[in-house]
Design brief:
By secondary structure, this protein is mainly beta. The chain is about 10% helix and about 65% strand.
Amino acid sequence: MKKLVLALAVGVVSNITLADTSLMLNKGAPAIIGTSPNYVHTESESQSNSTGPFSVAFGYAGSKLGSDEFLGTESFDGVFINATYQSHPKASIWAEYIFQSSEADYNHFSIGYKYKFLENEKLYSAASLGLGYGWLDEKESVSGLGDVKLELEYFTIPAALEVGYKVSPKIDVFGSFGYQWLFNNDAKVCLNGECLFGSGDELDLNGVTYKTGLRYNF
């Protein structure tokens, strides 16, 4: 309402001519009864820069996973895509898919909760915790044994700390560092087509994770 009053006042003043002669008003045709006057709608900067509760992020994802009882530690590199719904000014719910590869391929899907504990106009810091499901596949030919195929499935708990920079109200760049626990719930080892099934604590994995990416806020 305040902006509308100011706009009308400026319009009236611009049509008033102060001179040595009498005051002159620029008269226009009256509006026809039953019709609405034409107002020019201008969107404020805050409205044009506002964002909704949804965002999508993508980028690089790396990890170092392993176990002293199993494969040792192995580095994985890949990509991720993340979808987030902001349920509160400081809290959000997210779902994420990651594909990474090394000597083996690692796929991981997870959902979780993120909380921003520090935030200003340009920077933010957040912590996240999730639950997920991952599967690891590896195939190779071993001299004297033949073709070996390994398939492992895991229940996972990923946790991470994230720091981001707001390039604009709609675009963030960010990086994160975290840790992931992988609990084995199924394993299959095939040798020349003959397979063995099972699971065990000795197949559990854990390790650090790290990401860098770009987020677009709708």
